[in-house]
Design brief:
Strand content: over 45%
Oligomer: single chain
Number of strands: 9
Radius of gyration: 16 Å
Structural class: mainly beta
Shape: elongated
Order of helices and strands: EEEEEEEEE
Length: about 140
């Protein structure tokens, strides 16, 4: 990796069980993090490295949780990363999901915006914290 250009963090909840935000609509992405990266001074091939964590209290049911990251602000913008984790009926404690994603050679605009969404295929899923989403931009 070449020159570091910018880095940002979206910290919605810093500690465990510090929030209680229910996911109330099935399979509908909810925003939990958003960052903007300044591209001023970028040279060569830009690379964006993204990572994050979200903790959820799950219902006693087979649950699929999907994390989706887009380049932009809307779920319909270009998807950079999407993954679904499935949890079994026996999970009682809050579950921590961590992720890492890359956006290789994104279009250089004055600011690159990335948005992280979470969705669940079961009601009674609750976002409990921590929730964090961050990224860095580097160039050759």
């Amino acid at each position: 990796m070449g020159t570091f250009i910018d880095g940002r963090t979206s910290q919605n909840a810093s500690t465990a069980n510090s929030i209680a935000i229910p996911i109330t609509v099935l399979n509908t992405p909810e925003l939990f993090g958003q960052i903007g990266l300044n591209t001023l001074g970028i040279t060569g091939t830009p690379r964006v490295l993204l990572k994050g964590t979200i903790s959820l209290q799950l219902p006693l049911a087979l649950v699929g949780i999907t994390i989706t990251i887009v380049r932009g602000t809307l779920i319909t913008d270009p998807v950079v990363y999407s993954a679904t984790s499935t949890f079994s009926l026996s999970v009682l404690a809050p579950q921590v999901i961590t992720f890492s994603a890359d956006d290789f050679n994104p279009p250089v605009t004055p600011q690159l915006v990335y948005t992280a969404f979470v969705s669940s295929d079961a009601l009674a899923t609750i976002r409990v914290g921590p929730e964090s989403f961050d990224g860095i931009l580097a160039g050759d």
